[in-house]
Specification:
Layout lengths: L7 H32 L1 H29 L1 H23 L7 H28 L6 H52 L15 H12 L2 H17 L5 H9 L3 E6 L2 E5 L1 H26 L5 H21 L3 H29 L5 H8 L1 H16 L5 H32 L16
Length: 430
């Protein structure tokens, strides 16, 4: 599959998604740092929590609106709102604007909420215009572009924040406004024909999300994803704490009289940077090599490899062992991540696609809560004990995904043999 084979909407959304993630990854940490400088770390943390909760609420609202009114109107509303928010931020942060902290925060909150409103519609559109056969390749491409955006956004933001904060906001304002124009002129509606007939209103939205929460197939998908996410967040929580507190400084490499000595914080940075660089360098190649592999085997093997790498991260104190485990973790991610997204896309019913996508996204936030719990546990539970929990999480996810593949096979057998591989599921309940 090449880019020219993809639906025009899909090509545009992948490009737009890269730009959005680049500026999101670049600016979110910088805004937190900025508010921390203005109001202190404790207040900045509370302000960030409010943004996170508001974004979750907007995700859910956006999911309902997109199923009711279509993808394109919600995308346009969210993107023009985010564009105006960043324009306001640039003006407020300029010398003429005065840089009032509360005004900056209000505009940042508005921009984040608008972006959250549009997110489920964007994810649903990718499913709308892809096929079951192409989705693993599509999600491999988006996974690669996300990590490339992460790497570039982190570098640009880290190097330019202190001297060019205002200019970064101007760039974000220009690009988010450009994204709105691309959507206006280049994106067509992709919602299923019956979506406009969906009932409207707050009560209908609540009933719809209750229905999603009662869907046993969806619950298995969400819990399996949460278990994997709960392992992933450990690099930013309990593993980060262990490296910061217990890692003994070590000589990593030496050239002549010069030696590179790393601390725990240095190792954390090397592990995260190495993971991102490997994904950017290898994601498309690995996706092509593994494209013909059975998806069940690919996902199960990926989870085993991924979990094993995190177990090493949890217990090892040797720098080179930690770097070797980084390669293992990355390979496990590259094997499993696109297949998980494909499995979700194949099960989501077309009539409520964005509701399901919005609800599924909650596992990201819940995973952060699990990471916070593990930070507290790390004070009383030894590293090998936490690594054992990772095994339980990985095994639980594998059992759930195995049951989902069985459910997928049952549907394929019940469908017409000639169309079983391409027919969209009518609902998730099975």
């Amino acid at each position: 599959m090449t880019l020219s084979d993809l639906h025009p909407n899909l090509r545009l959304r992948i490009g737009v998604g890269f730009v959005q993630r680049f500026f999101d990854i670049m600016l979110v940490p910088l805004m937190v740092i900025h508010f921390s400088t203005l109001y202190g770390a404790a207040t900045a943390g509370l302000m960030t929590l409010v943004v996170a909760l508001a974004t979750i609420a907007c995700n859910l609202v956006g999911g309902h609106l997109s199923d009711t009114y279509g993808r394109r109107p919600v995308l346009l509303a969210g993107e023009i709102g985010a564009g105006l928010g960043y324009v306001g931020l640039a003006v407020a942060a300029s010398p003429a604007g005065g840089g009032n902290g509360l005004v900056l925060y209000a505009l940042y909150l508005a921009a984040a909420c608008c972006a959250g409103l549009a997110l489920p519609a964007n994810e649903a559109m990718i499913v709308d215009v892809s096929t079951p056969e192409s989705r693993t390749a599509v999600y491999t491409l988006t996974y690669w572009s996300t990590n490339l955006a992460f790497m570039l956004g982190s570098l640009v933001g880290g190097f330019l924040y202190y001297d060019h904060f205002f200019h970064l906001l101007v760039a974000a304002a220009v690009m988010t406004t450009g994204i709105f124009l691309v959507t206006w002129f280049g994106i067509t509606e992709t919602a299923p024909a019956g979506a406009a007939e969906n009932p409207r209103g707050v009560r209908t939205a609540l009933v719809g999300y209750v229905s999603v929460a009662r869907d046993p197939i969806f619950l298995r998908l969400a819990v399996a994803a949460l278990l994997i996410r709960s392992i992933e967040v450990q690099i930013s929580s309990s593993i980060a704490v262990r490296l910061g507190e217990d890692f003994t400084p070590q000589h990593l490499i030496g050239i002549g009289s010069w030696e590179l000595t790393v601390t725990g914080v240095n190792m954390l940075g090397l592990m995260r940077a190495g993971n991102t660089l490997l994904v950017v360098a290898c994601a498309l190649w690995v996706g092509k090599v593994l494209g013909a592999l059975d998806e069940r085997r690919r996902l199960m093997t990926g989870i085993v490899v991924f979990t094993a790498g995190y177990m090493v991260w949890a217990v090892s104190g040797d720098a080179w062992t930690l770097l070797a485990a980084t390669v293992v973790v990355t390979f496990g991610e590259l094997m499993s991540a696109p297949v998980k997204q494909t499995l979700l896309a194949n099960f989501v019913p077309s009539t409520a696609r964005t509701k399901y996508m919005a609800a599924y996204g909650l596992q990201v936030r819940l995973g952060l809560l699990v990471g916070s719990v593990f930070v507290s546990l790390s004070a009383v539970v030894p590293p090998w004990g936490l690594a054992s929990v990772y095994v339980l999480f990985g095994a639980g996810a594998m059992l759930l995904y195995r049951s989902l593949f069985r459910a997928q096979e049952v549907r394929a057998q019940q469908a017409d043999p000639e169309t079983a591989s391409t027919k969209e599921p009518e609902g998730m309940t099975a």
